[in-house]
Amino acid sequence: MTRTPAADLVLLAVLAVDAVLLAALELFYLPLRLDGLILPRVGDVALPVSVLVAMVTTPLLVSAAARLGNRRLGFVPLAAWLLTLLVVGVTGPGGDTVLLADWRTLLLLAGGTLPGALAVGGTLGRATRLAREAQLSRRR
Questions:
Q1: pTM of the shown model
Q2: How confident is the prediction along the chain (140 residues), in pLDDT tens digits per residue?
Q3: Residue 25: phi, psi to the nearest 5?
Q4: Where are the alpha helices (DSSP H) in 29-102?
Q5: Coil, helix or strand for 42?
Q6: What's the Cα-to-Cα distance from 92 to each of 6, 95, 98, rounded to whole Å?
Q7: Domain ranges, residue 117
Q8: 57: closest CA among 38, 90, 36, 81?
Q9: Hey, how many other C-beta atoms are within 10 angstroms of the C-beta on 75?
């Protein structure tokens, strides 16, 4: 069964909304600590589980978006994730700043952006390689 361009556009919008929701949840759960309130008490240590979630989900969203029609659209979920992280983190709900001023924020930014950017680069590189191979096979 073939997908229409309209279906690809709807799927891309769903992936972008997923990226927005994931960014918001990862941002809100970034301050989790092992302090006995939500997680067990283990010395009041910071546990940024949301960084691991970002490291796994962002490249998956980028890869899924790249499989839709045009491979260059893979950057859309990454851009939505990063924009949401910055907008919600700085302006926050009710004007509060949600981004923490410590290492966990940098870890979240790096943990979501770097794997996502590598996935975008991989899909674009794969598309370029396939185009070159097709061009060389036509010449033969």
A1: 0.82
A2: 577 878 888 999 999 999 999 999 999 888 877 666 666 567 766 778 889 999 999 999 999 998 887 778 889 999 999 999 989 888 877 777 777 788 888 999 999 999 999 998 888 777 667 677 777 777 77
A3: -65, -40
A4: 49-66, 75-91
A5: strand
A6: 33, 5, 6
A7: 5-139
A8: 81
A9: 20
Q: How many domains does the chain have?
A: 1
In the structure encoding, which two tokens stand for residue 6, read together? Answer: 């309209």
Q: 3-state DSSP call for residue 102?
A: coil
Alpha carbon distance 135, 45 (integer Å): 56
DSSP 78: H
User: For residues 45 and 76, what is the distance between their CA atoms, to the nearest angstrom?
Assistant: 35
The tokens 């969203």 sit on which residue?
Answer: 61
Q: State how far Cα 136 lies from the chain centre.
A: 35
Residue spans of beta strands (DSSP E) within 37-81: 41-46
Looking at the chain, which runs of residues are DSSP E strands?
33-35, 41-46
Q: What is the CA radius of gyration of the chain?
A: 19
